Amino acid sequence: MSSQRPALIVLSARDQDRLAEQARQLREALVSRGYGDERLSDIAYTLQVGREEMDHRLALLATSVDDLKDKLAALDLDGEPPAGVFRGEGEGVDAGEREEPVEGLVRAGEFGRLAELWTRGLRVDWAALHADADRRPRTVSLPTYPFAGERYWVPSAQRPKEPEVLVESAESGELVMSAGSGLMLFEEVWEEVAVSGSGVGVGVSVVVFVPVGLAGVDGVVGGFVGVEGWRVSVVEVGSGVGVERLGGGRFRVGVGDVGGLV
């Protein structure tokens, strides 16, 4: 962008209030971040290519950052826009105007015409606007869209129909369905049940491993055998391979190769 060419600053929003808030935030950012005139084309380029184009539109022609800040400070969206400020609602461009090339308007210096057409809905090739710039513009940090801080409350749900519950009839003593209060209560009830033996359970299989030649093995095993419902097997473990069935639920493991005893 040459030094004589004004910067085309574009803002758009979903409604006029958001548009005014966007203009206010932009001015605050220009003041707080201290951008100089050398960044004016970058500011314009960022707003042109880095923001969604919405219906309520505002375009400003600025020759310097101070000029832009002054226009934003004096902005009155309800009044008549001053020179260099254009407003529109993204509609009203006829077929002939849509054919006007950006390059032709730029060469003719008709930046006001370009700004006015954009506010009325013209789609602008922003790259063509900067094609003959002294340097390629870059994006800079600027405020994003100022969404409205609105709250939405979920409507209260209708009270559901009270469920029917099974109750005992006071007259007949039979269980009948009746409309409940919506609150269902349950009572935890424990019933005592007798358990045979030591209480571990019925039908338990127990395998007892003892060393080969253990003295008093019968006394050790006898404590298990006496429990009702238990099936007890005793395995004597020693060195070697193989298994020897001793009878009476007893086995001996590791006594040498005993040829298939299991």
TrEMBL record:
<dbReference type="GO" id="GO:0005737">
    <property type="term" value="C:cytoplasm"/>
</dbReference>
<feature type="domain" description="RhiE-like KS-MAT linker">
    <location>
        <begin position="10"/>
        <end position="75"/>
    </location>
</feature>
<dbReference type="InterPro" id="IPR054514">
    <property type="entry name" value="RhiE-like_linker"/>
</dbReference>
<dbReference type="Pfam" id="PF22336">
    <property type="entry name" value="RhiE-like_linker"/>
</dbReference>
<keyword id="KW-0596">Phosphopantetheine</keyword>
<dbReference type="InterPro" id="IPR050091">
    <property type="entry name" value="PKS_NRPS_Biosynth_Enz"/>
</dbReference>
<dbReference type="GO" id="GO:0004312">
    <property type="term" value="F:fatty acid synthase activity"/>
</dbReference>
<dbReference type="GO" id="GO:0006633">
    <property type="term" value="P:fatty acid biosynthetic process"/>
</dbReference>
<protein>
    <recommendedName>
        <fullName>RhiE-like KS-MAT linker domain-containing protein</fullName>
    </recommendedName>
</protein>
<dbReference type="GO" id="GO:0005886">
    <property type="term" value="C:plasma membrane"/>
</dbReference>
<dbReference type="GO" id="GO:0071770">
    <property type="term" value="P:DIM/DIP cell wall layer assembly"/>
</dbReference>
<keyword id="KW-0597">Phosphoprotein</keyword>
